[in-house]
Design goal:
293 residues; alpha+beta; 2 domains; four-stranded mixed sheet; two-stranded antiparallel sheet; 8 strands; elongated
Length: 293
């Protein structure tokens, strides 16, 4: 009875389809979707009056460059001031107050041949990119910093900057050690990374606590790269020690190792000192000028 009541009260929901065709245009206009404009490559599309980084040109004044150079010079050592001024002059000569792709490429090409010299191109590029950041902040225009893209060095050269000519590997020391072992008599013993005293201190009771036969680094002893000892019974007496450097022996290196040798000789007066450098055909004059031991 309930079913009959619901059937009598329910509305007529019978679906009656309407056979109407909604027109979306003629067939000929639908075929126009294959036109040349529809198949145009997105990369070929260039909006009218659109400026790219390759066509963008910005300006700066020589006064701004001088102001930035003075700012950098104020916080560095005196030895680095000439380098900073040289970087500033090189940047100005390459750009002449204009920041664009052409000028940045010219600066980059000028520095590429110098990349084989340690630090030269790296310093120049660092100065250039830092000055672009300075302009971006002082002029409130981040477009200046975008030109760093054209000042990037090739990957091979960027990787090379971490490898200086002063690096001496363990293999280098081992090669020299093997060579010496083949010619030294049995009573002479070679040791790598041996420690030698540079001072011996007596305490308040005039006692010497140092173990003279077993020096240790950090206990008034320096570590050496390679040392030749004379074996006398159970004693190893240091006779000669060597320090290894790369092809570039700087004045600082000579002064440092000369002072080290002088302090060792205060404890071992008979000790001889040697400095081994590879890939050099002559001894630089500064070695004879600055060595004191």
């Amino acid at each position: 009875m309930l079913q009959a009541f619901l059937a009598s009260k329910s509305p007529d929901f019978e679906y009656k389809p309407q056979n109407k065709l909604i027109s979306i245009g003629s067939l000929s206009s639908a075929r126009n979707i294959n036109s040349q404009a529809a198949h145009q490559d997105v990369g070929d599309y260039d909006p009218p009056n659109h400026e790219t980084l390759a066509t963008l040109a910005l300006r700066y004044s020589k006064k701004e460059l001088a102001s930035y150079t003075e700012f950098r010079v104020a916080a560095i050592s005196k030895a680095s001031i000439p380098w900073m001024k040289r970087c500033s002059l090189t940047f100005w000569n390459a750009t002449k107050g204009a920041i664009n792709k052409e000028r940045c490429d010219a600066l980059r090409e000028h520095l590429l041949p110098r990349s084989i010299n340690v630090g030269v191109s790296h310093r120049m590029m660092n100065f250039a990119t830092a000055f672009l950041k300075y302009l971006a902040k002082t002029r409130f225009d981040t477009r200046y910093q975008a030109f760093e893209l054209f000042l990037e060095m090739p990957k091979g050269l960027r990787a090379r900057k971490h490898v200086t000519s002063r690096i001496v590997t363990k293999e280098d020391v081992e090669n020299v050690t093997q060579l010496m072992r083949g010619v030294l008599p049995e009573q002479l013993v070679l040791q790598q990374n041996a420690h030698l005293y540079y001072q011996i201190v007596a305490d308040n009771n005039l006692n010497i606590r140092a173990d003279l036969k077993n020096p240790k680094r950090g206990d008034s002893a320096f570590q050496t790269d390679l040392c030749i000892f004379l074996k006398k019974n159970d004693i190893l007496l240091p006779k000669m020690f060597f320090e290894f450097k790369g092809r570039d022996i700087t004045t600082h290196d000579i002064i440092t190792y000369s002072n080290k040798a002088k302090r060792h000789k205060q404890i071992y007066p008979y000790l001889r000192y040697g400095l081994i450098s590879y890939e050099r055909s002559v001894i630089p004059k500064r070695f004879f000028i600055h060595k004191k031991a």
